């Protein structure tokens, strides 16, 4: 696609964006009418929204439009999965400057579509307007399949804490990029394009998870949400937290304890949940700690101590906090 | 609320925004978790999203934050109603500059909440981030109550065209404001705060409407969407289009044929629909035209002629076009 968004025109842009969407089973009526119609077989729909602004949530010199699309979709679809629901559909609100190359929003849509496909969802509709700053607003919907939603407030003393997915990889990749490097690729890729374990959310609900969230702000911060909502303390065992050798190498190179990335790095969208004590956890779930009776803050400890290194507790006040 | 958004902090802002939300029957799980849960008794959910940017879609010197909130919510909730669905819930994505007065987003939320209440819906969740330009992204959800969605594509030759709600009032109010005046108030108010006839959408579906849309881009433009999607021509009778005396006075004062506002003015969010010929229309539905076999473009005529005055056909290429 040659030329700018302004040259293509907004009608033309909408036509091109719509042409890139593929069918999805849950999308009964897609773009082109006043509203979309999405299947909600459970008679309830799970819904979440995030808004991303260029310069604050993504950088065009660090990530391709395709990767921004995948990541923006992933963070919303992971929120749906973290309720124990299966993602069904996504809606996109997009602000683009007239002088932006038309390929950018089209590749963004390709990324959104492919991430939706990975999660089993489809693009149901959206809105495109002109504005000075690229802004991507995504709303994701999901279906609970007749299970109760798994909230942040159900953890009970005695429960085990387990995680499924990557921890600290995006943060390590960010540390690499921030220093002007482009490798190791696995970590840079993890920062550009997280891979949330979508199926883990509904599976955990099926297994009787008592509380659940996705790790978007960092493991300590997100478990802090659970601990406060559930009125419990959570203690993590550092020996159970996997620090890959290559992550340690990056830590040595940039002078950061890699455990900090694992504990405080967000954006990998791992799924962390609490389970009744004797739950048999399937492959890829790692036990990383336990739920204890409440104490005065802090609500989350590591090896029974406060994690107080830089960054450890700053993420509570995050702009991505759900409304 | 004193101080700026930056002084209140984003965590504080979220707390204040959430405190302003009231319960709604369809919102089973509101803000504060990874995602909301909204009732969808029909087993399908109607969903639509719009994104509004300051300077392009609203002006802070013309509209209060409260009015921006009501209007932003109204345009999405009207889209839900125009499918024949009853609005159930709304999600908000909000970008605010740190230096913005904290009262602005709070009054915006009051407006969104009150418009939701008028439509029978509730605020289910959202996201707030900092950025240079105030941007309001809204996603509205609705329930079809076991009726099929009324799309734009079902109009048949012989059907009657009828409208419920206001036409041209917002455009007349805009003309007044653009010339620096603040009255007549009724029209200025109509521009600042549309009053879509939410109940008219589900009622039209119940009555067997064959196609329906809300008038967001202008009557001719929106009926053009129906005519093209349904492969028909639509002819309006100008004598049936109500031009209030006060609107004629404004037209005289500013040198505009007020029929142009009625035919091409958007943002009042009237509901326009086509019905089988002998449908008995209830109060507040006005017959304004008929559906005819297709012709070469233009697809919409007024008194069997092309409406070719300035503005008459420019709105097709609108930024608010659904994706």
Automatic annotation (TrEMBL), chains A, B:
Sites binding substrate sit at 57, 267, 313
Positions of Mg(2+) 4 binding: 34, 48, 79
- What name appears for this protein in its UniProt entry? Thiamine-monophosphate kinase
Reaction(s) catalysed by this chain's protein: thiamine phosphate + ATP = thiamine diphosphate + ADP
Record has Transferase as a keyword: yes
The record's annotation in Pfam families points to: AIRS, AIRS_C
Give binding positions for Mg(2+) 5.
217
Q: Give the matching NCBIfam families.
A: PRK05731.1-4, thiL
Could you say which residues bind Mg(2+) 3 here? 34, 79, 214
User: Binding residues for Mg(2+) 1, per the UniProt record?
Assistant: 49-50, 127
Q: Name the domain of life this protein comes from.
A: Bacteria
Gene3D superfamilies attached here? Answer: PurM-like C-terminal domain (3.90.650.10), PurM-like, N-terminal domain (3.30.1330.10)
Its EC number is: 2.7.4.16
Q: Which InterPro entries match?
A: PurM-like_C_dom, PurM-like_C_sf, PurM-like_N, PurM-like_N_sf, ThiL-like
Q: Where does Mg(2+) 2 bind?
A: 50, 79
Record organism: Streptomyces alkaliphilus
């Amino acid at each position: 696609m040659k030329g700018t968004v302004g040259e293509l025109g907004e009608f033309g842009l909408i036509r091109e964006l719509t042409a890139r969407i593929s069918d999805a089973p849950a999308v009964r009526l897609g773009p082109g009418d006043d509203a979309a119609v999405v299947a909600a077989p459970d008679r309830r729909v799970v819904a979440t929204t995030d808004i991303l602004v260029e310069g604050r949530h993504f950088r065009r010199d660090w990530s391709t439009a395709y990767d921004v699309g995948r990541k923006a979709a992933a963070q919303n679809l992971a929120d749906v999965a973290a309720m124990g629901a299966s993602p069904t559909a996504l809606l996109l609100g997009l602000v683009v400057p007239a002088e932006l190359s038309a390929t950018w929003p089209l590749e963004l849509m390709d990324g959104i579509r492919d991430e939706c496909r990975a999660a089993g969802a489809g693009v149901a509709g959206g809105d495109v307007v002109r504005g000075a700053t690229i802004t991507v607003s995504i709303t994701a919907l999901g279906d609970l399949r007749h299970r109760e939603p798994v909230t942040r407030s159900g953890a009970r003393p005695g429960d085990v804490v387990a995680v499924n997915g990557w921890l600290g990889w995006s943060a390590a990749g960010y540390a690499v990029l921030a220093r002007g490097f482009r490798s190791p690729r696995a970590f840079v890729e993890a920062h550009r394009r997280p891979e949330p374990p979508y199926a883990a959310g509904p599976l955990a609900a099926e297994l009787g998870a008592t509380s659940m969230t996705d790790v978007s702000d960092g493991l300590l911060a997100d478990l802090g949400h659970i601990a406060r909502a559930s009125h419990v303390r959570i203690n993590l065992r550092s020996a159970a937290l996997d620090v890959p050798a290559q992550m340690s190498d990056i830590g040595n190179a940039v002078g950061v304890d890699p455990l900090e990335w694992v504990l405080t790095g967000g954006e990998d969208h791992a799924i962390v949940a609490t389970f009744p004590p004797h739950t048999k956890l399937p492959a890829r779930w790692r036990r990383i700690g336990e739920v204890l009776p409440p104490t005065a803050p802090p609500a989350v400890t590591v090896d029974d101590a406060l994690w107080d290194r830089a960054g450890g507790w700053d993420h509570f006040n995050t702009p991505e906090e759900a409304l």
